TrEMBL record:
It comes from Rosistilla ulvae. Belongs to the class-I aminoacyl-tRNA synthetase family. This is Glutamate--tRNA ligase. The keyword ATP-binding applies. InterPro entries: Glu/Gln-tRNA-synth, Glu/Gln-tRNA-synth_Ib_cat-dom, GluQ/Sye, Rossmann-like_a/b/a_fold. The lineage of its organism: Bacteria, Pseudomonadati, Planctomycetota, Planctomycetia, Pirellulales. GO terms for molecular function: ATP binding; glutamate-tRNA ligase activity. Keywords: Aminoacyl-tRNA synthetase, ATP-binding, Ligase, Metal-binding, Nucleotide-binding, Protein biosynthesis, Zinc. NCBIfam families: PRK05710.1-4. The gene is gltX_2. One of its GO terms (cellular component) is cytosol. Signal peptide: none annotated. Its EC number is 6.1.1.17.
Length: 325
């Protein structure tokens, strides 16, 4: 992409449940980052984790985003040149990408169970997905017999050299992926693509040039950089924004009360109240006030986003509903 070309970003809800306040803030920031520079927004439904997907959550995610005042240039509801925009409808495309990686001898079959990995003495470090894989099956070479069908996944041989990048919010990042994250699955035991491969394949196919998401996904970036480079594609810019957490410092969940956007909608909350809360809590507004996303496009800058996680309380839920700022 030319340095002067408008950016292309994506809103990528996962329909494993209802969208909540924390999701909303990340989507609003991602949307503003692109629209403030005259860019295009793609809506993509990341339902590749099919066992956890709730069928009702797909349409609800689309409805929630539109209710917030966000729009997009391509997506499952309006179509576009990169359709389909639902991951479970893109399975054949992922198989092509898997074949490319296998041809480079970057994948190997792994029949290890999670228990096998957890019990391995050589797996003392923890990644966000559990213990670092101890290379049990990494000695496999092309032409060696495959394990029994349905009993193995394909793992990517992660880089043993240092990988560095500069995040637009978090700043410089550097790790040796193999040492701290380990080789990672790019398929499930069913043979279907896993999350890391699907998102990279989609970002490449859809021309995504900026990835904005919560900072809990920062470790995934190193794995995805490995995949982007193995597939010979320029890296997008990465933007990891702080999470919204409950009063106990943990990510939002049922224990923190009802933070679903649908809950606020049902109780008559105005979307402008949630947008105003999102911008205020991110350090972009000096005071909490109702505002529409389009009204803030010209004022938005990533440089002003607060670096600390945001604690949201039950009292603030009620303020959103009452619009009492």
């Amino acid at each position: 992409m030319s340095l002067d070309a408008p950016p292309v970003g994506r809103l990528a809800p996962s329909p494993t449940g209802a969208q909540h306040l924390g999701n909303a803030r990340t989507y609003i920031l991602a949307w503003l980052s692109i629209r403030s520079r005259g860019g295009r927004v793609v809506l993509r439904i990341e339902d590749i984790d099919s066992p956890r997907v709730k069928p009702w959550a797909v349409q609800q995610a689309v409805d929630d985003l539109a209710w917030l005042g966000l729009d997009w240039d391509e997506g499952p509801d309006i179509g576009g040149q990169h359709a389909p925009y639902i991951q479970t409808q893109r399975i054949d495309r992922y198989r092509v990408v898997l074949d490319r990686l296998r041809e480079q001898d970057l994948l190997y079959p792994c029949a290890c169970t999670r228990k096998d990995i957890e019990e391995a003495a050589s797996a003392p470090h923890e990644s966000q997905d559990g213990p670092v894989y101890p290379d049990t099956c990494a000695g496999w070479n092309a032409g060696d017999p495959l394990p029994e069908a349905g009993q193995f996944c394909w793992r990517f041989r992660s880089r043993r050299q240092r990988v560095s990048f500069v995040d637009r919010v978090v700043g410089p990042q550097s790790k040796i992926p193999h040492a701290v994250l380990g080789d990672f699955p790019v398929t499930r035991k069913t043979g279907d693509a896993a999350y890391q491969l699907a998102v990279v394949a989609d970002d490449i196919a859809m021309g995504i040039t900026e990835v904005c998401r919560g900072d809990d996904l920062l470790p995934s970036t190193f794995r995805q950089i490995d995949l982007f480079e193995a597939l010979g594609h320029p890296l997008p810019q990465f933007v990891h924004v702080p999470l919204v957490v409950g009063s106990d410092g943990r990510r939002l969940a049922k224990r923190h009360g009802d933070t679903r956007l649908s809950y606020f909608r049902e109780r008559g909350a105005r979307p402008e109240a949630i947008v105003g809360w999102a911008l205020w809590s991110a350090g972009l507004l000096q005071s909490w006030q109702p505002i529409q996303p389009q009204e803030f496009v010209e004022s938005f800058t990533l440089d002003a986003i607060a670096s600390e996680k945001t604690i949201v309380t039950v009292a603030e839920y009620q303020k959103i509903i009452d619009a009492s700022f």
